[in-house]
Write a structure and sequence with these properties.
With about 450 residues, this protein is α/β, with parallel strands linked by helices. The protein folds into four domains: about 1-75, no CATH class; about 80-185, Immunoglobulins (Immunoglobulin-like, Sandwich), CATH 2.60.40; about 190-195 and about 200-210 and about 255-455, Rossmann fold, CATH 3.40.50.410; about 220-250, no CATH class. Helix content is about 40%, strand content about 25%. The chain has twelve helices and 21 strands. The chain has helices at about 1-25, 30-45, 50-75, 185-195, 235-240, 275-295, 320-330, 345-350, 365-380, 395-400, 405-430, 445-455; strands spanning about 25, 80-85, 90, 95-105, 110-115, 130-135, 135-145, 150-155, 160-165, 170-175, 180-185, 220-225, 245-250, 255-265, 270, 275, 300-305, 310-315, 355-360, 385-390, 435-440. It has a six-stranded mixed β-sheet with strand order 18-17-14-19-20-21, sandwiched between helices. A hairpin with a 2-residue loop joins strand 15 and strand 16. It is elongated and about 110 Å long. The protein starts with a helix and ends with a helix.
Length: about 450
């Protein structure tokens, strides 16, 4: 009885081994080219007898080469290991580097085609990357992936197709690297602007140096005068006591509330370079919240469409950045128009005191702005309102492109009119006491952080 069981288990293992072998066997283009040539010569042999012998000899030679190629690819000493460590998260809208490591532990070299089963969101259908893998060597293939939407991305397995110099057979080797990776708002951009917003690094790095009008309201310390200090800040009493020039040093006010308001309505679904305007606003919202926390302010979040979608009260504790990051990650775009009427009571419930309110929205026509303007004016009377308007760069490009035909003149005229309307909307909001940033999506984070630092330096918050 035990003998029959052993024979059965041996048969199962042999069957599984054959299936694995057939599953890893692939026939490349070179095999079909050689096989087609042999078939053609053999077929011509029925017309001219000597060609039949040539075809049969070539067929026998092909069989021998296939056997040799199989031994070189499936020999017991062939050991090639694939690994692709998955990151904890991917950054939205950034180039994320994802390396694949190929370790050849065998004593012969191969030609390798590396193929990765990328998530469906990337829509990648490439043939992978070809390289030569030397004996007992380790190679690295870097992939650059730019996710355009938030959410969970499912990665499949990595594959390497080995081929010898004969190139008649291919062996597939797969790595056990499947898994899911979430795509979060760009933490990379957050860290980048966190460094640039520091006072000692902001000059010359894209962030403007703001000229202060007067001083901030919080006194920090008295220090010795150094060339470049404001002479109007000289403390004459301390100077007389120390017998050297001493100046008062001030710092920006702290613990002020900064609320990020995100319109998740239909108009924020417009795409720009593959990403929606909402996703651009999500990245910038995280950057602004982090800069505000670094400047010792309190950061909060309020997202809305027909109603309130997410709300994070403004605080400055250590976990606040993580709370805002998770709330931004879960935001969804809506197919409905945003309800601005409910925005005013919602922000007042979260922040009864005066705060900086940064509203990311997209008004595509003067009529849309007119409907929201009464609420925006009420909000601006109680808080410092900063309205972010997006410039349609495609329309701007069409307006600046020279026209050479009647249809191009019509297109240029319509683009110029639309562009003029957007600028008029920004000017009209300024007339009602609303701070405005009118910017292209790719410059959003830089211009919003600049405006925040300007408002803080001027003591308007």
């Amino acid at each position: 009885m035990s003998t029959n069981t052993d024979r059965s288990s041996i048969g199962v293992r042999a069957t599984a081994g054959i299936r694995r072998w057939f599953g890893s066997l692939y026939l490349p283009d070179r095999f079909f080219a050689v096989w087609g040539g042999i078939v053609a010569v053999t077929a011509l042999g029925f017309v001219w007898d000597p060609l039949l012998l040539v075809g049969l000899a070539a067929l026998a030679l092909l069989g021998g080469l296939l056997l040799l190629d199989g031994i070189l690819l499936w020999g017991s000493d062939v050991r090639v290991v694939l690994s692709r460590p998955l990151p904890r998260l991917l950054n939205l809208g950034d180039q994320n580097r994802l390396p694949i490591h190929i370790d050849n532990r065998s004593g012969r070299s191969f030609r390798v085609q590396v193929l990765d089963e990328l998530p469906a969101q990337f829509q990648e259908r490439g043939r992978g990357k070809a390289l030569r893998l030397e004996a007992r060597s380790r190679e690295r293939v870097d992939q650059k992936l730019r996710p355009l939407r938030r959410g969970v991305y499912r990665f499949g397995r990595t594959h390497a197709f080995l081929r010898t110099e004969l190139g008649l057979l291919e062996r597939r080797i797969s790595g056990e690297t499947a898994g899911e990776v979430p795509v979060y708002p760009s933490v990379e951009q957050m860290k980048h602007y966190e460094l640039l917003a520091l006072p000692q690094t902001s000059r010359g790095q894209g962030l403007r140096k703001i000229r202060r009008i007067g001083h901030s309201y919080e006194f920090e310390q008295i220090k010795a005068y150094v060339p470049g200090d404001d002479r109007r800040a000289i403390n004459w009493k301390a100077t007389s006591r120390r017998q050297e020039l001493m100046v008062n040093q001030y710092e920006d006010e702290r613990s002020q509330s900064v609320y990020i308001l995100l319109d998740c309505g239909r108009t924020m679904t417009l795409p720009f370079e593959g990403m929606s305007l909402l996703d651009y606003a999500v990245n910038t919202g995280l950057v602004l919240a982090n800069v505000a926390l670094q400047r010792h302010d309190k950061a909060g979040l309020l997202a809305f469409d027909r109603g309130m979608v997410a709300a994070v009260p403004a605080e400055k504790r250590r976990s606040q950045r993580t709370r805002i990051l998770e709330a931004l990650y879960r935001l969804k775009e809506s197919d409905y128009e945003a309800d601005f009427e409910g925005l005013y009571p919602a922000i007042n419930r979260l922040s009864p005191a005066r705060s900086l309110v940064v509203l990311f929205s997209n008004f595509e026509s003067p009529y849309a702005l007119d409907r929201a303007l009464p609420m925006l004016r009420r909000l601006a009377r109680r808080h410092l309102l900063l309205l972010i308007l997006f410039e349609n760069t495609e329309v701007a490009q069409a307006a600046e492109t020279p026209a050479h035909s009647i249809p191009e003149i019509y297109r240029q005229t319509l683009a110029s009119e639309f562009r003029y309307q957007k600028r008029q909307m920004a000017a009209r909001a300024v007339q009602h006491g609303i701070q405005v940033v009118y910017t292209a999506p790719q410059d959003l984070s830089l211009n919003v952080v600049n405006k925040y630092l300007e408002l803080k330096a001027r003591g308007l918050i």
